[in-house]
What does this fold into?
Amino acid sequence: MKTKLEGHTHAVSVLTLPNGITITGSQDKTIRMWYAGAQNKNYVAHEDIIRQFVEVPQLSGFASCSNDESVRVWSMDGTHLMNLKAHGGFVFAVDCLETGEIVSGGDDCTVKIWEYGEVK
It folds into this structure.
């Protein structure tokens, strides 16, 4: 079965989790959370384009990265948990290691490894 998730006004990034939650983010700076194809949450999450998402199982949440030079960590209910800011340019990529550390890569030609909200 196919489901069309509509609502963003620009290009979209997507993360679908094993529990069926789909998280979308866009150039419109919003994150939308979808449960069983129905939108449950919609909120402005960044100050610029949202580029990518990753699940952060150790925090029962997910992280987003953006052109606003930040990585933001969220709970599965959409609560903002922390703002990770150390890049000097757009953040294009975010991932999570098995250890729970968050890794981000940016336009400033650096890779940052985050542990407990601080760069390692």
User: Anything to note?
Assistant: The chain has no helices and twelve strands. The domain at 12-119 is CATH 2.130.10.10 (Methylamine Dehydrogenase; Chain H). The mean pLDDT is 93. The chain has one domain: 12-119.
